[in-house]
Each structure stands twice: as C-alpha cells, then as structure tokens.
Amino acid sequence: MIEGSSKITFYQYLYAICIAVPFINNYELTFFVWFSTVLITISNRYSLNVIKYLACFLVILVISFIASFFNAESTYNFFRDIAYLFKPIIGILVGYQLYKKCQGKFFSTVIYTGIFLSTIHLLIVLITFLRFHTISVNLLREYCGYHSDYEVYVLIILLFYKKFQLCLSTRTVYLFIFLVSASSFLYLSRTNFIQFIVLYIAIKGYFVINKRSITVISSVILFVILGYTAIYHLNPNRSGKGIEAFLYKIKNAPIEAFKTKINKDDWKDFNDNYRSYENILTIKQVSADGTQSILFGKGLGSTVNLGREIWTNDGELIQYIPILHNGFATVFLKSGIFGVLFLIIFMILLGIHKKTNLISVQNINLLLVGTAVFLIVSNWVFMGLYLKLDNKSILLGFMICYREILMKNEIVQSAESKQLL
Questions:
Q1: What is the pTM of this model?
Q2: Given a cut of 80, is residue 316 above it in pLDDT?
C-alpha cells in the first residue's frame, strides 16, 4: 500500500501523465489512460456544482445517442463518437478526483507539470533544429506540436505569482517564466496568443463590467484592430518564410473562420479557408435532413461529406469526416441546436460564481471566467474540450475541486470561530 506523502506524489505523477498523454496524438491511448485514472481515483461523493458541469456534456451525448436511432451509421463510427463525446466528462472527472487525492498540492502539481511539458517541447525544438539545420513555422508546427493551452495557464499563474501567493523564490519564478514563455511562443499558435490575452484580462478583473474594464477592453480591441490592419496592409506572402509565414496566418485568421463562400476548385482558397468550408457543408447537410436533424442532430456515427478526398494531419486520406475543427459545428452535427445550447450553458455556468471574500477563491474564479470566454474561441477553431489533443478539461476539474475545498474549509473555519465566541 502507498501511504502518506508517497501516495500524494503518486497521484501528482498520475496527473502529469494524464496531462502529457494527449501530446502523443493517439486518442485510444489517451482514453485508456484517462478512463483507467477515473476508475483508480473514483470518489463516493461529488458536489452538485461539478455534476452540473458534467450534466451539460452528458445531455449532448444522450441527445446524440437517441438521434442515432433515426440515422443508420456504421458500428465503428457509432462507438468512436461515444469515446469522443465522453472526453470532456472523463477529463473533468480525472482532474476533480485527482485533486481529492493530492489536496494542498494544487500549484506545485500544476506548475511542475507545465515545466516538464515546456522542457520536453524545447528539447524537441532543439532536436528539430539540429536535424534540419534550420527552423521555420512549418517545421515547428509539423515536428514540435501545434499548440499547448496548458502551458499558457501555467504562464499566467507564474506571471501573477504574488496574486496566487506562490511559495517560490523570485529567481525560480523568473526561470520558470522564461522556460514556459519560450515554449509557448515557439508553438506559434494564434489561438494560444488569444488565450494568453483573454486569461490576462480575466486575472486583472477586467471581465467584471465597470467603467475601467470597458475602457481597458475597448483599448485592447482597438489595439488588435490597428495591429491587424497593419499586418493586412503589409500583405505578407503565403509562401513566405519565418515571421512572414506567421504573419500571413494572422492575416488569414478572421477570414478563415468566417468566410461564407469558398471555391473548392481553387486550392489556395480551399486550403486557406478550410475551417469555414467544413462549417458550410455541415449546416447544409444537417439542414437538408429536415427539422428533426436541425433540432437534435444526426446522431452518433454521423459524418460530413467533403465532396472530395483530403489528407489529414495524421496522414489519412478521407472524404467523410466525423469530427470537424469547429466544436459548435461538431456538436450541431451530432446533437443539433439543443446540443449546441447545452454547450453554451456549460460555458455560462463556468463563468458564473457566487461572491466570496476568500482571495484564493476569487483568483480561481477569475481563471474560470477567462476559461469560459476563451472556450468560445477554442470551440470555434479547435473543438474546445472535445479536441483529442486537448487536456484543459483535466485542469478544469482540478481547479473546480480546489475551489470547492477552499470554500468548504472557509465554512468550517468560520463555524469554529463562531463556536469559540
């Protein structure tokens, strides 16, 4: 039997493994590790709060399950979708249950896991450079990874280390900030840059509506518009190298996600605006099946016909896709408007909190508010918590349990103080 501090350390390592395994890009392995962890750490009691979060994703799954009886799909596609739609549920449970096992070790567990990921990523970047004797946007993304939302959370916590009352020396904090920020930047992920801005604004409290927050957010929006305008007029080349290639991706970002007309026979238009192409086809094909499909989706195992074969990032040639880049569109395909409604309800619940005088709880609440806002973007371009590479759901579960225990301890201490009086 594992006892005492060794037991807590075991669960900290298990947390790190669960966070790291999605980067291997094998969903079967991720599902196995996460599901095994849920079984190992299963609890006999869950709060109403976490049940509400889980219920949103469970309703989406149930609607998809029922809708599938009205649409004939292959058995393989049916069970694959069950595994994919279960992912946020399992992830939140993993984080929630693991924190119950290693209470009091929230920041050390979260931060050192982030440092581990950043170190590994920087080593991969170095190996890639030594292998090709050069580095570029394409090389970084193909061989070193596309993004890491987790590291951005760790960077935010480190930047506000005084606010979170971290027991680390200033030198250590600065070293960690350097490692994590370097790693995060080298993903060259537009979504991660947006995530950083959103979480930074959230921690500063600017999502609480008042005169100051309106001024700050307006200034940020103005700065973004001016910055984008400058990049647009610089007109970076699509085939440019280095920073020019990255600027081209930024220039194309607003168009890529929202374009309504795409010429699939023009390879440049098709590739640059593929996300919008998926969304357009999904709405057309679901709507073509009538009101029932619009309201409740086409169920588990449903796919979108792209009308042509394309190569995926995993090296597969496919025409019928079960999962899209857009989380809202994917949920709409599987469970219709009602499913999308519950996905939105989850984000609203995540951003609504009761007032508290406990500073540590206030800071976690701000992180959760920032996460709720960021999930709007994440679901639009990267599948949100459903993405097979995503591990935010574990961190969410970890934060939710941490906050609940802090609040419970505050209630107990308050009751004890009253008894003494």
A1: 0.90
A2: no
